[in-house]
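Local shape tokens

___
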Amino acid sequence: MLAGILLYETGVAVFPAVFVTAAFLYFILKVKSGKMHYLYLVFPIITIISFMMRKSFDSESLFLENLKADGGKILCQLEGSVDLVKESSNGYKIFLQDVTVTLDGTECRTENCIVYSEDKYLKRDRLKISGKAAAFKSASNPGEFDLEKYYATLKIKYAVYASRITKSAGSDVFIYSLADRISDKADNILHNITDTATASVFGAMILGRRESIDTDMSDLFTACGIGHILAISGLHISLLGMGLYKLLRRCGAGDVASMAGGAAFIIFYGLMTGGGVSQTRALIMFITAVYANVANRSYDMMSGASLSAVIMLADCPYLVHNSGFQLSFAAVFGITCISSTLCKAFDSRNKILNSLLSGIGIQLATIPLIMYYYYRIPVLSVLLNMIVVPLMTIVMISGISGIIAGSINTAFGTIAIGPGAMILKLYEKMCEGNLKINGSVYTCGQPAAWRIIVYYIVLGLIIYYISQKPHRLKTLLALIPLIFILIKPRPHFEMDFLDVGQGDGIFIRMEDGTTILVDSGSTDNSRLYEYTLEPFLLSRGVDELDYVIVTHCDNDHISALKALLNESVIHVTNFCMPSTTCIDDAYEDLWELASESASNIMEIYAGMRIQTADGTVTCIHPSYQYKCDDRNDYSTTLVVQYGEFTALLTGDISSEQEKEILPYVQPYAPFDLLKAAHHGSKYSSCTEFLDEVSPLACIISCGIDNSYGHPHTETMDRINAAESEIYRTDEIGAVLVNLRDGKVNINGYR
């Protein structure tokens, strides 16, 4: 344990020591058969534990402390070396390392950072930058991608939006500039010899340029479970590195020279493609396998993967949080332990059957992680991959041949890349057909961590049992943990107030499974549906909303609903809009969109209710064809009842409407929970209304440092005077409300 802590504290400098230690274990801690010992597994465990323990005494630099204390943004000057350059929507995303920040005349060292720039720079360029630094935002809603945690796995703590960049020194390392030039040249050739969409796919597969790939194509492949073909992984390393190694040996080169040539080429290839997690793992495993062959030692994938984990975690322990890291090593575990055990149990020489069993093994190893990070499972992915994976060798050879031939003549390149392009079109058609099949994608939601732990423990025990006395019927036991992890837990009542920024978004689920969404919009988050609403719903296992209720047609309440209706991932059964004479373009456009997408569209007005097996949602405002001049005034106001629990959702009504609905509020008062009207506006939540409602808790949905000044200090004073506990989404993220054993539990996601 102490060794692990010290390893982490010394950081990258310990990398050679770890490698030497691992090499030592290779020779000393080996079984009689000569295989690498599984004690390699001890080192990743030690590193992971050390990371967990380090969190208790982790200290931030002066700069990062000031950055967080200043609301997440600060003007600064910094200097660092370019490590990686990727294209972004507005220019280039520069990964800077060895960063020195000057703040108020004081210099301090920080972790690596990202710089957004309009200009492209080369690796190892030394840059001086002036700009605004911003801390990465941590996830504030369930299911939301945690940008802060992700970049921490890359040893990056903040981003800088550059206003001025000066290159203090050019790139002196020829190999980096050469790698960039070859990559750019290859990408240009791909676009010359085939269409843009196909070229972008080849660019991702061969050159690691995933930023330029067509989004629809990427989403299509990912949804069908073949998105892994777009990442540089073990297939590329095996094809290129091992291919070159064997070629050199056949040409008469010695073992050492062949190993050095293959390793050098793969390392250079890594410089060209960015060196992702799976690629780094595959590179280390390749070098280990070739070295074992040269040294006349036996090699097994599990030990090679363990060595990779040792080296990668020693460099960056935060990688344990990286989904790519986890999935990559889980796949190796699936191949080495599960697939091999299943194949032995069947004792089959049928290649198709063995391919199917291998796919099943990988799926069993990775399904819990896929569920945890992506919330959906492509049911037919095993069958698809049986076709896709064998053909990938042809695709890769065709793409590389196309680049080489295209550098000589465009026509030759088009001919060479043709077979690979046709196979990619086949993949596209297969995926499109797959998604048309009902039930091809299972929305499972995000399982609890304890379920994943139990799954792997039980699966490990079953696989060990099967391996002792292999038998075909025994393999069915491997499905037991699969059934356990796939079964959705019984739903319970929940009411979640999403952190949408400046806006509203409320999700309600009754114990019988009825789902209701009240509003979803924001004025400061243009991609609210993509980044927040859809991930949240899918993480909850929801791919169909029984009711969507619109309070009013301001953009901060409906912006994500427009995207929801345009999407096919989540189906809307009933779409409810307030009954009013205040009809404008926004109202008409939303009604038209809903009429094309939802199963049923209706007006909602006072007296209407949604009755479920164990709860009720009642509309108390507006009245039928309510007359007003302002959108806020006709805001749908709802009373939610579940057992003895009552909540009041008020949209953006003003104090005038609050007084108007008092007679309808009285039968339900006092309330357990109130959603403060209009984000805590000065002109809502009047004293008379609060006295009648008497909420135990008050939820205020508003954006951080919003320009409207919400919530107003006078409103806060009135709510405090009503002795109501206040929960703000701008402070604690999503507010999660649930009932357990008749007790109301309210928690902030952050």
